[in-house]
Each structure stands twice: as C-alpha cells, then as structure tokens.
Write a structure and sequence with these properties.
With about 290 residues, the protein is mainly α. It has one domain. It is built from 14 helices and no strands. Helix 7 crosses helix 8. The radius of gyration is 19 Å and the shape is globular. It starts with a helix and ends with a helix.
C-alpha cells in the first residue's frame, strides 16, 4: 500500500542510520581488527535479517531459495558482505573516517561506469560529467587538496575504498535480475557469509574472544548499517509514488555523517573534504537522475 508519509519516514530513518556508520566503524576498529569486525557485524546482521524475514512469515521462501539457488547466493555472499565489507573496513582502518566515507559514496558513479561493459549501456555527456565531478572530488579528498602533486594521504587506503565501490556496484548489477524479495535475498547472503567470516577470523585474527564492550560497535553496525537501514530503505521505495523524492534523501547522509565524525570522533573536517563532497554530490545526482529517467 502506498503511503507517502511512511515512505518519507522510512527513507529518513535509513539515511540517519547510514550516516552513523562511518563513526561506528572507526570506533569498532579502535578495539577490533578487520576480521573480528567482519565476523561480529555479519553474524549480527544475519540474525536481524533472518528475524525480520521470519516475522514477515517468509521463512519458507528463504529456505526454498537457499535450496534452489545455493550456488548463486554463495557467489553473492562472497561479494556482499564478505569482500565488500572487508575492503571497506580495511579502508577505514587506514584513512580518516571523513575520507573513507566520502569516497565510498562514489559507488553510484562506479555503477554507471560498469553498466557499459556489463549491461551494454552507452555513456553520454551526463555520464562523463558525473564521472569527472565524482572522481575529481575523490582526488581532492585523497590528496587533502594537493591534487596537482597527487600526494595521497594513504595510497592503499584510497585503493581499498575505491575497490569497495567496484564490488558494491558489481553486486547490485548482478542482483538486478533477481526476482526474489530483496530482504530475503539479503538475509540469505548474510546467513551464508557468517560461517565464512568466522573461519576467516580464526585463520587471520589474533583472537575471537573479546569482551562485550569491544563488540558493541560491531553489533551496532550489524544491526543498523548492514541490516535495518536496508530494510527501511526497501520499505521506503515500496511505499512511494516518487522514487526521486525518496532517492534525494540519500544526499543528506554524507552531510550528517561529517557532523557525527566531527562531534564523536573529534576529526577536524578538512576544507578538501568539503570541496570534494561538493563535487561528488552533483555527480551522484546526475547519475541518479539519468537512471530514474531510464
């Protein structure tokens, strides 16, 4: 049932939760390594998403999908959450939160770029302008304004952040043709990924045993960033008559995120970050407007 007010509130709630994720990831990485964070957040999200699916009375659909499309969901689970969040968390471990989160928002522009070889789409003037704005903004942020010298704050960190946008875009392109309910599909991904994340932690982390205070940020990320925010966003899109009205809410997220980063992490927001963001947001807007027109 269409409900414009519900759509707006669901969308705004999703945006608010996503805007806290950069701060939560940084706080989590102060006490956990990347593999520990990946396991605890993935495991938490699997529980939350599975609970939501069961509450909706779709448990049978979940198990049927696993049985009939196990190989497909295995591949999707490797992309998201395993590879995507490993790259993203690793980037946050090396970069200031303001840089990592702002670069991550260019995934929508990466999606448009990858649609050319993978979906047979053609690039137009709008696409080239969106890419120029977005990636020039990344260069300004990553070099802290010294873009002519190309001296990056952390080359590997920037590479990891940009790589995460490629993986995220690939995931959504490969998921586009899937007719299964998106919440069910996401729950399956995390259910399958959780045991793999556990094994990776056993192999590459110093320890799996940590105190509750240490894993609280990871639990928060699993509930909010990986789980509830996506469900809210899906509900928002289902209950709206205007995708663009809901979609435009996403532009609040990077701005709110910088506020949380400044207030909670005490990072001084660099002028280069603001300039880069001022370029990236129009780039994303142009890319989204073209996608909505199609």
């Amino acid at each position: 049932m269409i409900n414009k007010n519900q759509s707006f509130y669901y969308g705004l709630s999703a945006v608010f939760l996503w805007s806290t994720s950069a701060t939560a990831i940084k706080l989590a990485l102060d006490v956990l390594d990347v593999f520990q964070l990946l396991f605890f957040s993935t495991f938490t999200s699997a529980i939350i998403l599975c609970s939501i699916v069961c509450y909706q009375g779709r448990c049978a659909l979940l198990f049927d999908a696993i049985k009939t499309k196990l190989s497909y969901f295995l591949g999707m689970a490797i992309l998201n959450p395993l590879v995507f969040y490993f790259l993203l968390f690793s980037a946050y471990g090396r970069l200031p939160a303001q840089q990592a989160q702002t670069i991550n928002y260019t995934w929508a522009i990466t999606l448009g770029l990858l649609s050319v070889p993978l979906l047979g789409q053609r690039l137009g003037k709008v696409d080239f302008l969106a890419m120029f704005l977005g990636y020039f903004g990344v260069v300004i942020i990553a070099t802290q304004g010294s873009f002519l010298s190309l001296k990056f704050t952390d080359e590997l960190g920037v590479f990891l952040a940009l790589s995460s946008t490629i993986v995220w875009a690939l995931y959504w392109i490969m998921n586009a043709a899937q007719k299964l309910d998106p919440v069910v599909g996401l729950a399956i991904n995390f259910i399958i990924a959780a045991p793999f994340a556990f094994v990776l932690t056993l192999l590459f982390s110093n320890s799996l045993v940590v105190n509750l205070d240490a894993i609280f940020p990871a639990i928060y990320i699993g509930i909010c960033e990986m789980g509830v925010a996506y469900v809210f966003w899906i509900f928002a899109l289902r209950k709206t008559t205007s995708i663009s009205r809901v979609g435009n809410l996403i532009f609040l997220s990077p701005v709110l995120s910088l506020i949380f980063i400044s207030l909670i992490l005490n990072e001084t927001i660099q002028l280069a970050t603001l300039v880069g963001l001022a370029l990236i947001i129009p780039g994303i807007y142009l890319q989204n407007r073209k996608s909505q027109a199609k």
